[in-house]
Amino acid sequence: MEKVKTLKNTSKVTVRFCEVDSLGIVWHGHYLKYLEDGREAFGAQYGLGYIDVYNNGLVIPIVKLEVDFKRPLKYGDRVTIETTYHDCEAAKLIFSYILKDIEEQTVGTATTTQVFLEKGQLCLYIPEFINQWKIKNLRK
Length: 140
Description:
five-stranded antiparallel beta sheet, alpha+beta, about 20% helix, 7 strands, Thiol Ester Dehydrase, Chain A, elongated
């Protein structure tokens, strides 16, 4: 059985009025919400939602975030979020993102790294729940 190294999800959001600034473009901090939207859609598709993780005694805070802004978004724009999970051997989750506008032009790229906490303590090992998730989702 071959091991898959990445899994992808594609989701869409529409820029809301409350996300634009006085210049009529999306304020940079709101892009983090789009990344969250992408992770939540990914989790729903692959059984790795925040509740799934929490119900297994874990939380997964973001410890690293990188965002590159390419083009502005405006009120009403439809944004496609491509969220990609990258498998690694460490006890962490790594996602990359490509955000595109309706014309398929890249408006931003990003990566996030999350770690596992169990009862407030950093997990130095991959939790069994995640090992089982990997077996289920990364094998073809």
